Amino acid sequence: MLASRQPILAHDEPLRAASVLLPFFAPTEGAPPELWLVRRPDDMRMHGGQVALPGGKYEPEDTDLLSTALREAEEEIGLERRFVEPVGYLDLYLTTLGYRIVPTITRVKPGFQLRLNRDEVDDAFEVPLAFLMTPENHQRHSRPWNGMTRTFYAMPFGERYIWGATAGILRNLYERIYQG
Fold first, then answer.
1. 11 — alpha (psi -120 to 50), left (phi > 0) or beta?
2. Is the pLDDT of residue 81 over 60?
3. Which CATH architecture has domain 2-128?
4. What is the pLDDT of residue 3?
5. Based on C-alpha coordinates, what's the Rg of the chain?
6. Taking residues 58-63, what's their average pLDDT?
7. DSSP state letters, 61-118
């Protein structure tokens, strides 16, 4: 599938580096892990109204892509670096808009309180890891895009619609954990 998108990506724009955090936490001592996701404001120029992982594009002042994700998470939800323990990385994720995303799995230490930047985040919410790792919650959808059919994952969660790159990254996590 990626091979069919490569000419479009190469023609439109060069790939751009980006990084996101998968910030897992336990709501109470010994509770099963949950993941924080954010919803972008409807009026955002890019990705308005979409559910996303905290993160964004690489900036020249970032020392590496982990620092990109940490900077963005602090800007978006107030997640200070002292509360973040990196655990590992998932496979690089390429988007149809030309982003090369490095997903970083992290553990959020107790004591962190959300502080939303309303210019970038309309809402933040928790999703149980058990929900995200249940394959019955992974739907495949497709739609026309630039003269081709684009296929993507979606994971509806209550009234929230997790789809696209976010759902694709979460599907990669599932495949890494359960399909080795």
1. alpha
2. yes
3. Alpha-Beta Complex (3.90)
4. 45
5. 16
6. 96
7. T-SSHHHHHHHHHHHHH---GGGEEEEEEPPPEE-TTSEEEEEEEEEEPTT------T
